[in-house]
């Protein structure tokens, strides 16, 4: 139930800010060559003669029925089909990035925590701090420069595509997907591995871990069945937040790699003052973030029976 007011507040604030920033009435007033009847038609069509607070509820009523308006910045096409196409393209990046990041982060965290203060632990810790502190756009530009352009200059071979989304052959698909996926995954790996390592350090000397080892259980089973299962509550929270962040954070990555997803669509809509597209994208991202947080709360009961009993 808490998700409903969160979504309403998120969409309401976004609508107010976007409507005030775009100022469609001001643009119509400044147009000296516009026909008065056409201008009046636009004002009537978009309820521009009404206060922005009232216009929000008109938009909300249409959005609830699935009508997100018209994408004026994309050639007067319906927002719904456009949003669906771009959402799928963003998911193409988010899902492999999420799987790669989660898998590598757990492996690094287990190795680092079980070999605390070793050379490997220091190396992984340094690398993760570097990943956390490095801005997404900077890392994306580094990959684009060295793997996209310099490799072609050095060896006359360009395996990675630096702009756009290509389909067709397997090589074209992998070439266009690789750099954006690596960018999103590396940034997520850094944070996830730090949380996982800290959680393992807290429990690795717990009594039930010592008991499992005293029974003669193989280390693989101690780690897999006892340690990892008990840090899953923390990791589920991080993964839920990270998947929503991958969808939202792809704004920068998609812009740099010219990827036709939600992020690039949102940037284009904001600069064009396209209120309908901006609201549609923000609404979808807000719903995804709230939904994955809700899913994490529900998974707690499966991972820890004590949560269900409470």
Question: Can you walk through the features of this model?
Answer:
It is a single chain. The chain is mainly α. The protein contains 13 helices and two strands; from the N terminus they run H-H-H-H-E-E-H-H-H-H-H-H-H-H-H. The protein has a two-stranded antiparallel sheet with strand order 1-2. The protein is globular, with a radius of gyration of 24 Å. The model has no long low-confidence stretch (mean pLDDT 83).
Q: Which sequence of strands runs across the widest sheet?
A: 1-2
Helical proportion, percent range: over 70%
Strand content: under 5%
What structural class results from the helix and strand content? mainly alpha
Radius of gyration: 24 Å
CATH superfamily of the largest domain: MetI-like
How many domains comprise the coordinates?
A: 2
Unreliable runs, pLDDT <50, ≥5 residues? none
Gap from first CA to last CA: 19 Å
CATH architecture call of the largest domain: Orthogonal Bundle
Q: How many strands in all?
A: 2
Largest sheet: 2 strands, antiparallel
CATH topology of the largest domain: MetI-like fold
What's the rounded overall pLDDT mean? Answer: 83
Determine and state the CATH class of the largest domain.
Mainly Alpha
Number of helices: 13
The arrangement of helices and strands along the chain is HHHHEEHHHHHHHHH
Q: Which overall shape is indicated by the principal axes computed on the Cα atoms?
A: globular
């Amino acid at each position: 139930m808490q998700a409903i007011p969160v979504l309403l507040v998120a969409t309401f604030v976004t609508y107010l800010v976007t409507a005030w920033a775009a100022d469609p009435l001001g643009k119509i007033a400044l147009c000296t060559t516009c026909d008065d009847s056409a201008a009046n038609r636009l004002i009537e069509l978009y309820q521009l003669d009404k206060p922005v607070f009232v216009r929000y509820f008109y938009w909300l009523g249409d959005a609830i029925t699935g009508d997100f308006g018209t994408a004026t910045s994309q050639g007067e096409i319906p927002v719904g089909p456009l949003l669906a196409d771009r959402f799928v393209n963003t998911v193409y990046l988010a899902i492999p990035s999420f799987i790669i990041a989660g898998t590598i982060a757990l492996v690094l965290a287990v190795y680092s925590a079980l070999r605390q203060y070793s050379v490997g632990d220091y190396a992984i810790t340094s690398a993760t701090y570097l990943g956390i502190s490095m801005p997404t756009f900077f890392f994306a530009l580094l990959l684009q420069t060295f793997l996209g352009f310099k490799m072609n200059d050095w060896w006359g071979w360009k395996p990675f595509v630096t702009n756009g989304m290509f389909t067709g052959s397997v090589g074209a698909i992998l070439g266009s997907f690789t750099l954006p996926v690596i960018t999103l995954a590396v940034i997520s790996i850094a944070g996830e591995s730090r949380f996982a390592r800290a959680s393992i350090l807290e429990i690795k000397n717990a009594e039930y871990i010592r008991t499992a080892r005293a029974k003669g259980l193989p280390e693989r089973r101690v780690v897999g069945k006892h340690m990892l299962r008990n840090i899953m509550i923390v990791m589920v929270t991080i993964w839920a937040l990270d998947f929503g962040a991958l969808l939202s954070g792809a704004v920068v990555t998609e812009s740099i790699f010219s990827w036709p997803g939600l992020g690039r669509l949102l940037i284009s809509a904001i600069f064009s003052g396209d209120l309908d597209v901006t609201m549609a994208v923000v609404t979808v991202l807000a719903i995804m973030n709230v939904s994955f947080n809700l899913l994490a709360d529900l998974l707690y009961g499966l991972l820890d029976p004590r949560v269900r009993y409470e």
